[in-house]
Fold this protein.
Amino acid sequence: MSLGNTVTGTMTFRVVIVDDVEWVREMLADLLNDTPGVEVCGSASDGVEAVSTILRLRPDIVLMDLKMPRMDGITAAAEVLAVWPEAKIVINSAYGDTSLVEQANDVGVVGYVTKDQRPSELIEELLSLQV
Amino acid sequence: MTPDTGAVEPQPKTEPSLAQSAFIVTGLVLASVGAALFFALDGRAAGTTWEVTISGLLIVMLAGILCFRREHRLGWIALWVGLLSAHVGGLLAAHPTIIGVDPTAPSVIDVLRLANYPLGAFGVMVLLFGSGRKIGWRASLDAVIAVTAGVMVIWLAVLEPLLAAPSTAWLDRVVGVMYPTMDMLLLGVLMVLLMHLEMRAVPLVLVAVALAGNLAADVAFGAQSLDGTYAPGGVVDGGWLLCFAALAVAPSWPSVTDVRLVGDDGRLGGLRLSFLGGSAVVVPVMITFSAARGERVDGVLAVGGLCLVSLAIVRMAVFNRDLNISRHEMAKGAAALSAANDEIHAAHSDRRRLLDRVHRLIEQERVHLAAEIHDRPLQNLAGVGYQLERLRMTASRGDLSTTTKLADEIADALATQLGELRSLMTEIRPPVLDEQGLLGALRDNAREVMAAQPGLTVTVDGECPRLDCDVETVLYRVAQEAMQNVVRHADADEVFIELVGDEDRSVLRIQDNGGGFETDRVDEFVRSGHFGVAGMRERVELLGGIMRITSSSSGTTLEFDVPTAGAVDEFAQIELETVR
């Protein structure tokens, strides 16, 4: 499948942001939308909503929070990957415990960025997935 | 000198002082040397030795009484006067020319000798019961049994032959009968003494030895006199000498308190059982001997035997009743012990549950704090980080207006986050508690509760100085807990909180007009995992305070009464730290 669509002649990532804190979703969306080659195409505030949104929008990248109401990020990622194994999901969480990272890797996510890392590192991680 | 502090003295002195030792040794040496010389010599020399020895012993006894016996002195003096009287009687009998009487006929000598017995009996009774001590009726019954048996012996050995013997004059007969009668009195006193005796009461033991020696010597003298076999310097004189010697050293024996010790009235110790057993067989043995010698069974002996059997039956019944009472009391004691044990177990179990609950609450609080930090400052700071990255990007593009707008947004966001952090800090520990004290913190809490519960009016009133930090913290937490309970369970629309205190005590009262609850179910709440009320009580008790609850269908009042200065118990302080 296509990794993205063409905007002003360059490949553009379509990103879905999943986070239960609205303000964080907004700030991250503003940042990514300001980043060349990245477009936020949707968002979700919990794991259940995330699964339906992702499977409906089929974005190039998913930025997934871990701790959320109704369904946590790892469970949501597992459900998405079970239906759509090609999905590229990057965990973006405040938690960085080794066991959580291992658990996320076991599920099949492609990246894990903690929220205490600089936002530029998050963007670099996303751009590295372009290839 | 031995302190004379009475029966309440916890540790009676048992070691003699130097003066007491000197008196005791003097008495014993005098008695030993006197006895040795008396039994070794004959005739006039033996008589003189006897008179000097007895006089010396009487002096030792009087000195002991005057120096060491302040309490019950009347008893001791009576004993001493009795002995003196007997001794003077003996002196006059040995030297009849002094007053010109016939020593073989009834005279003032007999009066002096006989006076010894009632005086001695009076003295012993004063020593035994002079402090208002009650006479044990069981011990007295045992004494009566023993006396009855003894009287039978005296009757058969002395009195009966005396009465049967031909007499020339009625005065001779009266005087003759008076001696064994006085011996019966002596026997009665001895038995009462023995039945009440505690072996640690050494002075009383010595008195008992003296009475026993005197009695044995009298009976032997009576029997030998009747047979015409009495001779001075024999065992009879030994018994009398023993009597004088024991009484000479008794007053000097240490500890007045010991004199007051008496055995348990109902307890059948070895001594008492021996006397009762011996008494029970005395009459049958005498009757058996009479029968074996082919003599007629004496009527008095038969009646005495019947009395003894009747008394023994009564004593057995009393003993049986005492046993049943003891058994019943033991069963009651065991039941009470078992109930107390159950209570201790229940209390221990409650305490453990409560401590578990406290530890779980601490952990829950940490989980809550971690979640709060994750959900609020941490997320929000991440958002500020995203904004800063955008700021950097727009600045690098030279987009000044967007950069300025973003900078304003970041400043607003940081101000909001600072407010969030302050709110979190207030949740953890309200600064107003430290700055303005408990009343201020309670008013703030009341405002927050009213804001969250529009139908509820909370009034805070009172006048109280600043309290100890621990006390303020505990009272604030219990007030928070109480308010939560009101909101959750009470269905109240008014709460009145009052804090009053002085330098000594501080009282926090929280009164609502809700539906109330059954206060006797608090323990049941704990067992079913509801620790609110029990936790409040525990916190307050750790401070050395108390919690009072009154509740009815028209409302509940909780009152926390604590020492203003806080817990004085170091252990409680440590526990308080743990709980916090």
In short: The CA atoms of residues 55 and 83 of chain A lie 8 Å apart. Residues 5-126 of chain A form a domain with the Rossmann fold fold (CATH 3.40.50.2300).
